[in-house]
Amino acid sequence: MLETIKVFFLAIVQGIGEFLPISSSGHLLVLGNLLFGGSDIEDELGTLGILLHTGTLLSILIIFRRQIWEMLSDNRRLMLLIIVASIPTGIFGIIIHKYFNFLEQNVLIAGIGFLLTAWLLFNVIAPKKKSDYERYFDEIEELSNEENELSTSPPLKTLKTMTYRDAFIVGCFQTIAILPGCSRSGFTISAGILRRLNQDAAASFSFLIALPAIAGATLLEVLVLWKDQGPALLSDPNMHIFLLGSLVSFGVGLVSLIFLLKWLKEGRLQYFGYWLLILGPAVVAWQLWEIISSHPFINEFLMNFLQK
């Protein structure tokens, strides 16, 4: 019963964190270490992690079914943009997974990633509040533009007008989000906004490029686990619980994605940054304490101090 509760709890965290800009991988890593213990984290979250990601992948297919159908039927350019964005993620994802896999399981990096995500939420995604002084001159500029019928700044881009360079840069930001704590949605939406995509285009492209990224990462993990466990992977005694967890992550992910798109339009995503500003320093402090306290000299000093 306790294991079932753990799985359902992690499924809810996955469904929320995959889309809301708080990093599902970072939260799963931190919670996995707390619930299962650091030594068993990779084994415990291996099969379960795959199924939880599959659940959230299906929720993207449901929400963006219209764009996906258009892309597959006649919008070849959008498909090429997604391919371009996926190139850096695919290359560096394989390199990191093969040679630097320890980075994906490092809780200290997750704490630092939470802080980086918070910075993006406050400084890129958050709507800029202008002073009365700035608003005054903006009004003068708008009046001047109306009189001259000229625009001083180019319009924001849509999925139809974004360039291949825009797609590649967004893909590079997605590559950084391979690291735990770095929210994929937070980084890619921020990249889109920095490249002057409008909010709808930035969010839509962020989740469209998530399809090959999540599917590729899931397939890679399946291959690794199949190499280690073989057919025994399918006969896991907890498989029925894991499948229910996948269903929970799908449902929670569906709701989370709907709310993310709504909150992005309302300019409220930055509020998640406050949670990350609490969680990030706490995780960093926890991991630094683990490193310091595990040192033989520090350990001996603490034992002697407590005995006194």
How much helix, percentage-wise, in residues? over 70%
Count up the helices.
15
Rounded to an integer in angstroms, the radius of gyration calculated over CA atoms is 22 Å
Q: Uncertain spans, ≥5 residues at pLDDT below 50?
A: none
Question: Structural class of the secondary structure composition?
Answer: mainly alpha
Distance, first to last CA: 42 Å
Report the major sheet.
none
* Shape, per Cα inertia axes: globular
> Count of DSSP E strands?
0
On the 0 to 100 scale, the average pLDDT is: 82
- Output the helix-strand order: HHHHHHHHHHHHHHH
Strand content: under 5%
Description:
The protein has 308 residues and is mainly alpha-helical. Helix content is 78%, strand content 0%. It has helices at 2-17, 24-36, 41-63, 65-73, 76-99, 101-104, 107-125, 132-148, 164-176, 184-194, 199-208, 210-229, 239-266, 272-293, 296-307. α1 (2-17) packs parallel to α13, α3 packs across α13 and α9 packs antiparallel against α10 (184-194). It is globular. It starts with a helix and ends with a helix.
Keywords for this entry:
single chain, 308 residues, mainly alpha, 15 helices, 78% helix, 0% strand, globular
